[in-house]
Specification:
- Helices cover 15% and strands 38% of the residues.
- By secondary structure, it is mainly beta.
- The strands form five sheets. Strands 5-14-13-8-9-10 form a six-stranded mixed sheet, with no helix packed on it.
- β3 and β4 form a beta hairpin.
- The longest helix has 26 residues.
- The termini are far apart.
Length: 304
């Protein structure tokens, strides 16, 4: 059941908790709304979570995070511990837009309020209480006047490559990218391996120098895929394609690269099979012997 309270300046969506599923651990239950929530852009939304039976959460560590942004964007939406909001752990785009109901923590209310939501707030929100080892994930979708926008990037499958080959890591946005106003970053393991800013591309990590590039012409078509040359085994892993629209607004997508030694393994297997199969070795020996006999016979016939 959903109840909408309309105020003169804003709209707050409150999800009432009734017969909601719960995660059980010990004597305490973290009860949250786990249904998909859809709201309009610019609204305020409350992601309801509470402890049952009611116990004080004032001294608990309460973590609200976005697991769907990992590993590309690290940090929390809102973290509260020992009566203090941990501002330093917050994702910048949520600055001054997230809050808990501090006066209700004593009653076990750990709900999160996100103000002035934008389409980039669409995703999964995880409420985690480490002290009682409980977590619940809530899915939020932000649209505009009932319209739900498409994903920011075109979907793609994990990429496979063979050692020594060249590969394209796909990243195509569904929104317009400006060469002059936006910054492109390709990251791996929290390192910037390639950046495009002010129409110039640069590589920050020595191991990727002269091996990475992005087509500026394709950039104009919202295609910021990364070309990686001379693939190495160490290139295997998750890559993040991130576009900085402004200081607090960044959109990212993850690309997984799987690297194999397929060609070399195939050659090794053929050699191993030849050495391990005595019948194969005998056949080769017999063939060589037959060829030698034929050559000698032909030579003798020619002389006579």
């Amino acid at each position: 059941m959903v109840q909408v309270l309309i105020c003169p300046t804003k709209v707050t969506l409150i999800l009432l908790l009734s017969t909601l599923p719960a995660a059980l651990t010990g004597h305490n239950t973290l009860k949250c709304s786990t249904e998909k929530i859809t709201v309009s852009a610019a609204d305020d939304v409350i992601l309801q979570c509470r402890l049952e039976p009611p116990i004080s959460a004032e001294s608990m560590r309460i973590e609200w995070t976005r697991p769907d942004l990992l590993p590309c964007i690290r940090g929390s939406v809102h973290t509260h511990e020992d009566g203090r909001f941990l501002y330093e752990e917050q994702i910048p785009s949520y600055n001054n837009r997230s809050s808990l109901f501090v006066d209700q923590l004593i009653n076990g209310n750990v709900s999160l309020k996100v103000s002035r939501v934008t389409p980039s707030d669409t995703g999964k929100y995880r409420c985690y209480l480490p002290s009682i080892h409980q977590e619940v994930v809530i899915e939020l979708t932000v649209g505009h006047d009932g319209f739900v926008p498409p994903d920011s990037f075109i979907e793609h499958k994990p990429v496979e490559a063979v050692v020594g080959s060249d590969v394209i890591l796909p990243c195509v946005s569904t929104f317009n990218i400006s060469l002059d106003d936006h910054i492109l970053e390709w990251n791996k393991d929290d390192e910037e391996i390639y950046t495009v800013q002010d129409r110039r591309g640069s590589t920050q990590v020595d191991d990727y120098k002269d091996r990475t590039s992005v087509s500026i012409e394709e950039f104009k078509k919202n295609n910021v895929s990364l070309k990686l040359s001379g693939v190495k085994e160490t290139d295997k892993g998750d890559y993040c394609c991130c576009i900085k629209l402004d200081r607090d607004n960044i959109k990212c997508t993850k690309v997984t690269l799987d690297v194999t030694k397929e060609r070399k393994q195939h050659e090794d297997e053929q050699q191993t099979n030849a050495e391990a199969d005595p019948l194969f070795a005998d056949s080769i020996g017999a063939l060589i012997g037959n060829v030698a006999v034929c050559l000698v016979a032909a030579l003798v016939g020619f002389v006579f």
